[in-house]
Specification:
Layout (H helix, E strand, L loop, with lengths): L1 H80 L3 H13 L1 H13 L3 H30 L9 H4 L5 H4 L3 H13 L1 H53 L1 H23 L10 H29 L9 H10 L6 E7 L2 H8 L1 H18 L5 E4 L4 E6 L7 H16 L10 E6 L10 H14 L4 E4 L2
Parallel strand pairs: 4-5
Antiparallel strand pairs: 1-3, 1-4, 2-3
Helix pairs in contact: 1-2, 1-3, 1-4, 1-7, 1-8, 1-10, 3-4, 4-7, 4-8, 8-9, 12-13, 13-14
Amino acid sequence: MNEKTNQKSLAGISIRTLNIIMFAIAVILAALLLLATNQVSDSYEIMQDATEEYIECQTAAQDMMSASDYLTEQVRSFTVTGEAEYVQNFFEEVNQTKRRDIALETMEQYLQGSDTYRYLQEANALSNELVKLEHYAMRLAVDAYGLPLSQFPEEIRNIELLPEHRELTGEEMRSAAIDLVFNNSYQTQKDKIRNNVNLCTTALIASARSGQTDSSNHLLQVLKRQSLLIAVLMLAVLGVVLFTMYLVIQPLYEGIEHIRKNEKFPVTGSSELRYLADTYNELYEATQKQQETLSYEASHDALTGLCNRKMFDHEREVCDPQTTAMILIDVDHFKEVNDTYGHETGDKLLKRVASILRKSFRSEDYVCRIGGDEFAVLMMNSDSSLRTLVTRKIEAAQAQLRQPEDGVPGITLSVGVAFPDRPNSTGDIYRDADTAQYRIKNGGKDGLAFYD
């Protein structure tokens, strides 16, 4: 009697213990699952913070270049026109707006000590060096135009002209001031600034991609742990298994595969997963658009929309030299257009030239702006049999550009062409096209020459 009672008691204890163990396992798994879900939310916040940081840093890099270009525009306008308003704009940017300083502070806040920050810091240092030269050019222009020195900021008043400039006439001083901010040395300094900003942007893109990969990997690990916990929990709570399989596990595995393929997260499963998918997809689309925008801006000229010098140099390296023709195009007397009609008209003229050139060549050809008023075309799958066709294209473009349009004066082009099957084709095709173009420039401009 006592033995049977003991057996029933043992059996009861075993069942109760099993229930307690199962309950404990369920509670532990539920707690771990809750923790994993919180980690997903944390991963989302990290990705969101990283995206906001990227946007602010990218904006800072753009502001650095925009501010530098703005200062250049103001000092050039002043040396050319002598209007004091440009000096006021210049010092308002330097001393009040301070976009360059703010951009550097923003980058320092997030990326101090990184290569990205150092590139922007170097760009700012180069810009500050250029400001000193711009101060001197404005000081020369003040005397050149006979303006009262007392009306200008202290930075200008305290500058003493070099001995070689003191004895110059007003017109000579004006020419010297203009030369200081338009010559090759000044442009080289600007190119260094732009190059550092481009390096900053490139490093920033690389950092953003790396951060995105790390965040995605972390999110993937969290989701895997969550899936494992749910799979174990299915064994303890059989009644929840079907719902879990339908609403959580399957959508998670599909989402993981899409993440591996760098695709959008499918919006399926439970409401939590749908929210996660919508949030991830929003970040994914924003990141893709930003990358596409940055890639386009890095390879295209902002003014004309044509391929820029960087894209031109890249395509020269990768194209087939046996089937690619080179066309170099300069706008004749472009500086006189700028000086006479202003930079706004000059920009309209460049856009018009770009539009006509783009329409004149095939979609497979690369039409590029490689300098201020310099354009180039890489004609794919071409040889000297197209000589007549190229001549017609250039003559048609010349005919359109000679006619004024919408306040833009008529101009002409100096064009040099080198085909891949030209004589002595082992030489540099760019140099040969430049040689042909030089014949036109040397002969009075306005024409087309082939290297042969």
